[in-house]
Amino acid sequence: xxxxxxxxxxxxxxxxxxxxxxxxxxxxxxxxxxxxxxxxxxxxxxxxxxxxxxxxxxxxxxxxxxxxxxxxxxxxxxxxxxxxxxxxxxxxxxxxxxxxxxxxxxxxxxxxxxxxxxxxxxxxxxxxxxxxxxxxxxxxxxxxxxxxxxxxxxxxxxxxxxxxxxxxxxxxxxxxxxxxxxxxxxxxxxxxxxxxxxxxxxxxxxxxxxxxxxxxxxxxxxxxxxxxxxxxxxxxxxxxxxxxxxxxxxxxx
Length: 253
Ligand code: PGA
Description:
TIM Barrel; 8-stranded parallel beta barrel; 15% strand; binds 2-phosphoglycolic acid; globular
């Protein structure tokens, strides 16, 4: 079975519920009739309910940008997988580089989040990627990325892996306008798939979707998606306007 492409929008800390509703509506209407591509939008927590209403009854999926791994408890300011599932959220980003960088999220915590998401029927998208300094340090960036994949999925079996996707987002490409070349993205994705195969076997690795993220735009999505191991895109800036997100969804057109 070929992997169905997944195009995901990460709205980051943008949109009030009203803005989010407008954006969700425009994406929903503009994406009507698009087939063979899974579409996911990840608004901020405060806009999830509004967007859930706009997407109800459509094939567009709703994701969260983060979550805590406990179900309930004295964890002021946190959001649990139970709360997300109750809003109709089906996917969750785990370990976005901005979480790692600004909020000190470590692989061990992210592994707990991945497991908690799976336990609650949420599909985790585990985000990995090297910083500019790591990339410039030479070949060791590969070990950083492989390490993030292994640690994030530690303790899981191939049978658990079905709902999991990986997003490779080189930190130097996020929000900078500097996209990885298709060849560089392919190199990293192939390496991630190989790391998955080593731990979980060839079949589980073959079935996994590996998204590319980092300055994906309407004018570079096609060449990135043409690479054999690039199975989708995690889009930040360009997902905040229907005019730029819709052409990315329609990359085949
Ligand atoms: P960008 O962000 O598309 O604005 O580079 C991607 C991401 O952070 O997921």
